[in-house]
Amino acid sequence: MQRRPFLTCAAALASGLLLSTAVRAQTTINVAALADFAGPYANVMNDMQGGRLAVLDWWNKEVGEKLKVRIAVKTYDTRYDVAQTASLWPGIKAELKPVMVLGLGGPDAAALQQRLPEDKVPMLFGTAAYGFGWKPGQWALNIRPTYSHEAAGFVEWFRATKLEGKRPVKVAIITSEATPAYADMAKGLQSYAKANPDKATFVEAIWTEVQPADLTLQVRRLANAGTDVIVIQTNTAQAVATKRALQALGKNIPIMLSLHNGVAGSSRALGDANGFAGDYEVGAIADATEDDTTARKFYRLLQEKHGLKSGWNAMTMIGLGQSIVAVRAIEAAVKSKGADKVTGEAVHAALLATQFTGAELMGLLPGVDFSADSPFPTGSAKVNVATMKDGKVVRAAGEVAVPTVPKW
Q1: Do β-strands 392-401 and 382-389 pair in parallel, antiparallel, or remain unpaired?
Q2: Which architecture characterizes domain 147-283+384-401 according to CATH?
Q3: How far is residue 299's CA from residue 50's CA, in Å, rounded to a whole number?
Q4: Which of 37, 288, 394, 396 is buried most deeply by CB count within 10 Å?
């Protein structure tokens, strides 16, 4: 009887040791996330970041615990600047030893595209891809095809539905030479129009500042040329300046936006909740419309159980889509190599070897299939077209085929 306290202590100690062993058995895998909380995307970054973190929390609890793996993420503010990304990267690599980088956009690709193969760390983007990344053996991968592929899909849909296929769409683009990614958007759209004169006529590329003060003169020129659609895949500042110019001129030319500068975010920046009514946002990812989709159900789950505070919008969708591919790739590497052998090289190999299905990606993407020759999805990519009506984002068309665009 006198030995019971000792036995109780021994049992407690043994229990503690077992718990300690269980904790130690969990492997932590580090991921770096690049963000912009002080530059051109500062006003929408929180939504994208919230999507990222919620998916990681969901995976850690629902999948990682069973695999005895936890994915830890650390975020670095690059201000959407090439030089800032390049200067931060050596410290990120040394401090974190990440197996993957969640990139934000063009400056990150420009700064790190040539370094990543040597460093053996893949970078994954939730945005569309760029022509300068369309090379074999890439380590900077996009979960969507190029911006020009997405624009081409929209142009073909617009021609078929709005022009009844009777003539080519007269399309113009407003962009900037400030970043390689912005310039690439114009080059790719020109490449598509040149190869498909029966479907598209390229009117002009308006080259302007990243945050232009006024575009009335330039937009008047596009209107006088009979432009059917103005493509703006850059940022909300250019979208707002174009809309104000159209309003000043009394013109109603539809604008096609990308997801990161979509109709809802651009309307907020304009100061009118219905400001981009009748315009479009296009992306090869689930749209943030009111439809009760698989992606919407997953979003609700993240809200209810995993702390998601971000609104149901395109920027949140980009964060969700980027992260779901990231965790599935790490998951594939864990199952293939073992948790203690997951390196950047192993994750890169998993990205190239695995055809991720729409179900695995929680309906956020139709599927993702990378290859050594194409650092973005090829066979599985389709675009969704959304528009704005009465201040709400509504679907105009779903799963529109992405056409072939010649390499530029």
Answers
A1: antiparallel
A2: 3-Layer(aba) Sandwich (3.40)
A3: 11
A4: 288
